[in-house]
Amino acid sequence: MNAWELTRFISDAATENPLLEFQTEQAPHLPLLGKRVQREAAGVLGVDWLPERYLREERSLRGELMEQIPSGYPKMAQLRYLIENLDERGYISREVADKVSGDVLKVLQSMEPAGVGAVDLADCLIIQLEREKPVDALAIDIVKYHLEALAHGHMSYMMKELRVGRAALQESIAHIRRLRPIPANGYTDGSPQENYALPDAFVIRTETGYKVECPWGKRLSLNRDYDEICKSDINAGESAFIEEKRRDAEQLIRFVHQRRKTLERLTRYIVDAQREFFLNGSGDIALLSTKDLARSMDLHVSTVCRTIQGKYLYCEWGVFPYRFFLARSVNEEGTDSSASIKRVIKELIASESADKPLSDQTLVEILGKQGIILSRRAVAKYRDAMSIPSSYIRKNG
Length: 397
What we know:
The protein has helices at 3-16, 61-67, 76-84, 94-97, 102-109, 121-131, 137-145, 147-151, 155-162, 166-177, 226-231, 236-273, 275-280, 290-297, 301-308, 338-350, 360-369, 376-385, 391-396; strands at 20-22, 201-205, 210-213, 220-222, 312-315, 318-321. The protein is mainly alpha-helical. The longest helix has 38 residues, at 236-273. The radius of gyration is 24 Å and the shape is globular. It starts with a helix and ends with a helix.
């Protein structure tokens, strides 16, 4: 859930829940940008709060999925067929799915964003739930057998059918509501259009370093008149209604607080890891993967991926998607961290055995273990760009 989605979600919740107080957020005071605005930058930002000026690049879901197809995949045509026939939600119809092998559909459903390639809403949610460890079995059962009851808020019915207490049920329901029901959200259909990015985090340079602010949702709180409402002359039905709304409000406040806390931690780690870029607005992007972030923050990789999905960061050099700072995936044309990747490839080849030089495929596998996902063709391009001959020539001279 990015900043736009979060603010809309909170606003809708506050409209429906009288015990929620929500004040419109204000972005931090933004200094003028430096002279250079890197790729992904949203134009020149002034000190005024003008969300419409945060222009972002077009992000085609189909394009990103094509980049994730494994090099040399034997059923490439079938996989491309599925990708080309995704609907506006990122779902695939059962009719289309039946035309290809089941294992091909599984490959599509293993891609990012999580949930893509699902045949319906329940399938989309289950794909996401099954990726997480530990698996929330209760949440999966709710989605599989009681999705309609969940939509209508039939708590008592679900408690009886699933034989669980209210607290456990509410926890799994909260888990389900944090998932992305429409995986294509945040992507374009590939047609020319303007898109706008509202930064989820702001990295502000200070005299002593950098300050990270994630303002969205900070002004969400429980209605201060709650105690007075409870003390007023109300009947049992009204009391039960207020208590339910209080629980819903507190649950949402906890979720928003945890989201902000996780995003702030993640952003500070990225700032530290990419300090050269934040200082100068140039230089190589250091090699950093989602696995690195997950390990350092003691989180699951899927949590990190979900945290950065569709989110943007503002700094004095521009507005950048979080994926700009990560070596999660590299396409055939290379990325801004290409110099760092070349350096790693060069070091691996320099330390290889003269009798058994590393093939491009072996380099792909070694780099993959380091969180750098490249095709064999891309490795060959990097190697050729450094005038390094193939493994056959390196062995036989």
